[in-house]
Amino acid sequence: MALVGGAIAVWMSGRVLSLGSLVGFLAVFGIAARNGILMISHFERLEREEGVPFGPGLVIQGAKERLAPIMMTALATGLALVPLVVAGSIPGHEIEHPMAIMILGGLVTATLINLLVLPSLYPAFGKSKRDRQSEPMEAAATAG
């Protein structure tokens, strides 16, 4: 989804995908993946260490607690890139300008996905602590 937001931002700016855009995509992909992994591991930690039962309450609490770190990551990165976007494609910024556009566009969609879509999908596709603990026993029983 980070690619979609970045590609839309590049298209809206009237540019084409370039080497700088692709480098920006890799950067925003890394940020989005990191935020998603940290969100899921936070859900698991809440269940494992704090005893929050698996379900909507776990997801709501976890998403609220991860809101500030995800927003700060996006805002800090975005604010650092605003001067490159505003300066435009001036000589010497042929790579940085498209990269900044891609990262800003990708950050918007990646942040929305990590804050809205990922928490809503976790109850359907995530596993409770009980299910994760029973998997090694089932695997050992079928292997033997």
Which properties best describe this structure?
144 residues, mainly alpha, 5 helices, 83% helix, elongated
Describe the structure.
- The chain is mostly helical and 144 residues long.
- It is 83% helix and 0% strand.
- The longest helix is centred in the middle third of the chain and has 32 residues, at 56-87.
- The N and C termini lie far apart (42 Å).
Mean pLDDT: 84
Quickly count the helices: 5
Report the count of strand segments: 0
Multimerization status: single chain
How much of the sequence lies in strands comes to: under 5%
| Low-pLDDT segments | none
* Rg, nearest Å: 19 Å
Gap between N and C termini, in Å? 42 Å
Question: How do the SSEs run, as a string of H and E?
Answer: HHHHH
User: What structural class is derived from the secondary structure elements?
Assistant: mainly alpha
Helix content: over 70%
Overall morphology: elongated
Task: Profile the largest sheet.
Answer: none
How is the secondary structure organized here?
Elements: H1 2-12, H2 19-49, H3 56-87, H4 96-125, H5 129-143
Helix pairs in contact: 1-2, 1-4, 2-3, 2-4, 3-4
